[in-house]
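Protocol step 4 of 5: obtain the predicted structure for the target chain.
Materials: sequence only (see below). No template structures provided, no constraints applied. The aim of this step is simply to have a reference model before the mutagenesis design in step 5. Sequence pasted as it appears in the construct record:
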Amino acid sequence: MTSSVVNGAIKPLPSRRQKPSRPPTNLCSTLTTWLVNNQIRILSQSRLLTLGMPLTVLSALAITHFTVPQEYTRQFFTLSHYNPSNQLYSKGPGDWPFVFTWVLIFTLLRAVFMRFLFTPFFNHFAPHPTRRSATRFAEQAWNVTYYSISFLVGLHIVRGSKHWNDIREVWSDYPQAEADMLFKAYYLVEMAFWAQQIFVLNIEARRKDHWQMFTHHLVTCTLIFMSYTYNQTKVGNVFLCVLDFSDILLSVHSLAAQTAPPSPEISRLICV
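Step 4 output (structure tokens):
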């Protein structure tokens, strides 16, 4: 009921306004909001990039690396477990600090590329730019950039291996406990990228396909981790090449959907 009759006159009743929802104040939501707002930090007047969360942690690690004995911090910046007798790298707990550093690097690069390159590009060239579509375009453009580089590196490794001409060779030389510098760096950087995907998926605004993407990233991280720790890295290399190539196609399709002009039906509805 929105009105009442008083002395023959109709008077509107005061509307019941819903109270604005308060932002969550628990520790988890506060930390999540802080992480989203501090992936990068920019001075609005000078447009200079200042220390956000990734740069702050990376700078602290670098300063510590040069001020304390470097055997404690070298693992964050270089590959560990080097075997000088055969010039190969084995696996061990020293690999995880290197992965952590690359998670921070990817968080920084993703935010910088999206903010300064892909979003301005979309807003300038898209026929109907919106904030939501610009964010979606920037995310997919970043994915295409990374997946393309990763696929080319992985394909280069496959082409130089014995299983390029014989897929059965992926099961040979088990256990594959050691690898050269390029192969080990490729594997750990891939692991860091997919771990970073889970990180940003859970700190940024959730979309309709949140749980599907979360499951996809979790399964991918599990496959990379298990193939690495169980010394089946040749299989993992082939798997990552296939996955990167398919993700390039999916991301390009999403880019096309964001940049395509609206259909005549949608345009007619907008005009009405």
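Step 4 remarks: The first helix runs from residue 27 to 37. Residues 15-21, 43-49, 265-272 have pLDDT under 50 and may be disordered.
Proceed to step 5.
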